[in-house]
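The records we work with from here on pair a chain with its fold. Here is one such record, which you should read through line by line:
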Amino acid sequence: MWLILPLTLGDLLAAALDDRSAAVAVTGTISAWVVWTAGLIAALITLPRTLTLLRVLAPLPVLAGIVAAVDTSADASASALAWVGLAAAALVAVTALTADLGDDFVNGSSYGDERRLALRPPAVLLLGPLQLVWVLTVAPVVAALALIGSEQWVAGAACGVAGAGTAWWGSRRMHRLACRWLVFVPAGVTLVDEVVLAEPTLFRRDAITRFGPAPADTSAVDLSAGASGLILQIDLDVATSLLPTPGRDGVSTPVEARSVLIAPTRPGAALTHAETRRILVQRA
């Protein structure tokens, strides 16, 4: 879908740039090709870092297409293919955020006999903070390009410097979400999540007595980071020592747990893979 964007959405963007100044047209065209090339590379290389890049870039084509669509000159000259491109761009943005795609990219960094599954982000981040971080990541850069296209060199350069800083900060914050994994290894299941744990923790396969949906009245240690949706519970026959992420005071106190709660993005796939690893799964 990303590959065909220049042939579809490109028609809509070109129509919107037809009546603009040469500087705006050149800046817009070069920016569009840079975004498309970076997104194509990210789509072809399945790694956590490219997942972050793809999810940062994916909304940009649909937003650019919407801006072009509301432009009166674009409405007058864009072909039917352009509207197909706008629909394709919207589908790209949605697909980039799916759990299936996330799992493929997360597992791209696995090695040996292991399988990595992504974890759901804390629910509170989905209610505004994550969207705000994305805006702070891309908006200053877009504003800098717009100013440069308008030949406002000083303001464009200043905004570009600020945009580079916010892009670096925002991408690092969002990349943390792509580095939260449930990892199946020959010895058992490892939880890698710096949001809740100071270090990866292994739950040995021979110690797991149950892996399945958490009961409503569970008293297990919550390692789901406040995620919404179906929560899974791992029960152990012996207590495992956990080292939570340090609080604001920088202090982390070890916790002994015989049951923990986790939140993979695809809980059904996690249980299915656990069965292939001879882990005792209970689905109800």
Remarks:
- Residues 239 and 258 are 4 Å apart (CA to CA).
- The longest strand covers residues 232-242.
